[in-house]
Amino acid sequence: MSYKVLLLGSGGREHALALKIAQSPELSEFYALPGNPGISKVARCIKGSVNDFELVKSIVKEKTIDMVVVGPEDPLVNGLRDYLLQDKSLENLLFIGPGKDGAALEGSKDFAKEFMTKYNIPTAPYRTFTSDQADSAKEFLKSLRPPYVLKADGLAAGKGVLIINDISEAEKGIDEIFSGKFGSAGDKLVIEQFLSGVELSCFVLTDGKDYLMLPEAKDYKRAHDNDEGLNTGGMGSVSPVPFADSEFLGKVEERIVKPTIAGLRAENIDYRGFIFIGLMNCNGDPYVIEYNVRMGDPETESVMTRIDSDFLEHLAAAASGTISTQKIKISSHSAVTVIVVSGGYPEHYAKGYEIKGLDSLEDITLYHAGTSEKEGKVVTSGGRVLAVTANGDSLKECRDVIYSQIDKISFTDSYHRGDIALDMIGWNR
Ligand code: AMP
Ligand code: GLY
After folding, report:
1. Is the CB of 194 under 6 A from ligand 1?
2. If the chain, 429 residues long, is cut into consecutive pieces of 10 residues, what is the mean pLDDT of each piece?
3. Domain coordinates of the chain in residue numbers?
4. How far is the CA of 182 from the centre of ligand 2 (A)?
5. Which of 19, 132, 226, 242 has the smallest number of Cβ neighbours within 10 A?
6. pTM, whole model, 2 decimals?
7. Pocket-testing residue among 74, 77, 201, 280, ligand 2, by greatest number of atoms within 8 A of Cβ
8. Residue among 326, 330, 333, 305 nearest 212 (CA)
9. Residue of the nearest CA to atom 4 in ligand 2?
10. Can you name the residues that pair with 391 across neighbouring β-strands?
């Protein structure tokens, strides 16, 4: 088979997907909307927004696209799949990403929690409240032990979760969410029990009936070393994750992945795409913290480098309902990713600085995350600017390769964590 592919998105995750897809002998033409200067080396980038559904449709028709691969969640939550596939002339379009129904796993925390409860998928006990129930929500807090976990129901750009130690602060948090701190995402509020443990990201590619497990990963969310500072989109990642041995991953598959896919089928949700399961390992048992309907960023940057089979073929099989025919080949090599960010991220930061040293790193895969091209130069255009990934026999080797060279990349006020993967080295398996 040969495929004309359109990839939606512009970050490091999409650059990682793009490089993997570009390795396939089955790729015939490759387009990205909007892409970035890194992606433009392997795909033709088209200007515009992933949320401009008419534009997406016109590209699909004009370029006679066979497959659309969606990077970020918002077009999915907004129903891009449904919009395109209801057009009779696009009946045979292969599309990676769920419709609006399946995307509610990420788009509504309340839906996800109800789904997990219904299908006996381990997750923290919870209750959902609407804005007229602030008093009951505060009453419910009293039945929980601190810290208190408050989650706005809807999409809030990854910022809709508050974890608060003090009960009166948590009560204030309830009022703030209900008075619009996260906009309409906070029309409903999920309060759940805090889970202590170590977090892990698991990734599934499914056709709604069967699935492939992609390599697991762990991301580093805090801005500074030793997990200090503000929460970010992610400052680095590792794969594999030393504490996720085959026994633990077996539990994830049996207790979470299989019942999730069976649950989607039982709900008549025709889910074709990625499921990213954010997990907590609580004393060796996995609990779902959240579902996402996309790949993780910066996990994808590490994960893609460990897939040795034809990923485009897996995607085509997921989209066409034949994933049971596929076998994924996962490299035993390790991968580490360190994100280079704009100084000040995740708060205020400047953009437009020229990036130097982009071609100076060896044995590295360099992904563009927040860059753009200006007068022939590559400049910063976001908080997370570049993802620097290394592969090696061990996480330590990857770390050494990255940190011995990362300072060759330079732009004004650039910053990166210095301790990515350090806590995983020597982890007692
Ligand atoms: P979410 O958007 O649901 O992934 O939540 C964002 C982050 O909050 C997660 O990655 C966890 O670090 C943390 N978190 C969410 N829910 C819980 C919980 N029940 N217990 C402990 N930490 C949590
Ligand atoms: N790295 C976490 C996420 O992509 O949501």
Report:
1. yes
2. 97 98 98 98 98 98 98 97 97 97 96 98 95 92 93 85 92 90 88 95 98 98 94 95 95 98 98 98 96 97 98 98 98 97 96 96 96 95 98 96 97 97 76
3. 3-100, 125-193
4. 19
5. 132
6. 0.96
7. 201
8. 326
9. 296
10. 335
